[in-house]
């Protein structure tokens, strides 16, 4: 009995850094940009490579756990995560930090299925397992919630590298505890790993996103070739999934319109979550000159609403039809984006928190609705595959949210930036506020620097509002789409 809860403590200890690292860097954007002289494109890679690597590898790493046992899987993931954290803390260039974040994503993709497998094998009683899963879920939401606040506190008092360095002692302790308390499991040596399929998928995704990001700055035959290669890779991956007897992703799930709609909801909801945090953290620090800790505290109500909104959303799901609840969740999110686009965050903080809490709850409703729809319409023998695909959708949505919100912000920023031609001739076109501020600080002509910063801040505020309006409009459309797609849910499930 005692060993069960020691193993649960071990799982909590290693899962917490994984969840924190998903959000901790949002507050550090201005600091990282200045410390490592990051371009806007490099900054987006630092942020989203973590989620993209997880999205591509989480399924085969779950299969690896069946093959070697969750003890070895957890130990392997912890070692990689520890090394990657140290590498990230010592990074002195953009490419070194991007590489470290990719390795962190690899470690996280191994740790996540290991923690779930650990709970499944350790707690054989259903009630005890549900209790353990509840704690696991709370840690997931709580870690994401505390990430920006922890990042702000660290940046207030320490070097930015400490954001990653704090993972190292935790992971070292976990390694010792795993070796001492976690028993070796029986394994399935015949379990297929799908590593080749995973590498094709993740390579294709990365090529497409690299081409998309780079084409914003320069478009030539190399970028087009890379984009075409990514498309061909995805087509080949899909054909492979259809032709193999043991695919990594069960594409037959997507033939069910409820499942496919719910996956879209999961991806878009995660895009909204991380995209909004990306915008807000920059707005607060670069425009309103909040400290990292103040910015973390400002964002906290949004993350808490997401973390604790689960019970409220569950209560609603037991009272109202799923298609109503899902579409209302999308509609609330759209309304929140529109409301946030019309306020000044520094001067109307109370209204900002109201809209942020509403958005957090609406995102949680959307995520739970998508899960419920998938579980209610998926045959029991495919429930595990459906859950794994949805988990992959969450991580893919997080990565895409950073990419798309970041590119929209950069586009509207450059379109609305109005400065004298003499300034443009002297410094060129800048694609982000952080880049512009860095350029202005290097100018010897202080009057020109002042003009540039003032114009850049005004342009960023305009761009921020425009991105929020676009996101709000997209969610209004999605609300109608979800309602029309899910309104016949009961009839479909009963057949």
TrEMBL record:
<keyword id="KW-0813">Transport</keyword>
<dbReference type="GO" id="GO:0005886">
    <property type="term" value="C:plasma membrane"/>
</dbReference>
<keyword id="KW-1133">Transmembrane helix</keyword>
<feature type="transmembrane region" description="Helical">
    <location>
        <begin position="396"/>
        <end position="413"/>
    </location>
</feature>
<feature type="transmembrane region" description="Helical">
    <location>
        <begin position="96"/>
        <end position="119"/>
    </location>
</feature>
<feature type="transmembrane region" description="Helical">
    <location>
        <begin position="296"/>
        <end position="317"/>
    </location>
</feature>
<feature type="domain" description="Major facilitator superfamily (MFS) profile">
    <location>
        <begin position="7"/>
        <end position="490"/>
    </location>
</feature>
<keyword id="KW-1003">Cell membrane</keyword>
<feature type="transmembrane region" description="Helical">
    <location>
        <begin position="324"/>
        <end position="345"/>
    </location>
</feature>
<dbReference type="InterPro" id="IPR036259">
    <property type="entry name" value="MFS_trans_sf"/>
</dbReference>
<dbReference type="InterPro" id="IPR020846">
    <property type="entry name" value="MFS_dom"/>
</dbReference>
<feature type="transmembrane region" description="Helical">
    <location>
        <begin position="160"/>
        <end position="182"/>
    </location>
</feature>
<feature type="transmembrane region" description="Helical">
    <location>
        <begin position="351"/>
        <end position="375"/>
    </location>
</feature>
<keyword id="KW-0472">Membrane</keyword>
<feature type="transmembrane region" description="Helical">
    <location>
        <begin position="194"/>
        <end position="212"/>
    </location>
</feature>
<dbReference type="Pfam" id="PF07690">
    <property type="entry name" value="MFS_1"/>
</dbReference>
<dbReference type="GO" id="GO:0022857">
    <property type="term" value="F:transmembrane transporter activity"/>
</dbReference>
<feature type="transmembrane region" description="Helical">
    <location>
        <begin position="258"/>
        <end position="276"/>
    </location>
</feature>
<feature type="transmembrane region" description="Helical">
    <location>
        <begin position="218"/>
        <end position="238"/>
    </location>
</feature>
<dbReference type="InterPro" id="IPR011701">
    <property type="entry name" value="MFS"/>
</dbReference>
<feature type="transmembrane region" description="Helical">
    <location>
        <begin position="131"/>
        <end position="154"/>
    </location>
</feature>
<feature type="transmembrane region" description="Helical">
    <location>
        <begin position="467"/>
        <end position="486"/>
    </location>
</feature>
<keyword id="KW-0812">Transmembrane</keyword>
<feature type="transmembrane region" description="Helical">
    <location>
        <begin position="49"/>
        <end position="66"/>
    </location>
</feature>
<feature type="transmembrane region" description="Helical">
    <location>
        <begin position="73"/>
        <end position="90"/>
    </location>
</feature>
<protein>
    <submittedName>
        <fullName>MFS transporter, DHA2 family, multidrug resistance protein</fullName>
    </submittedName>
</protein>
<feature type="transmembrane region" description="Helical">
    <location>
        <begin position="7"/>
        <end position="29"/>
    </location>
</feature>
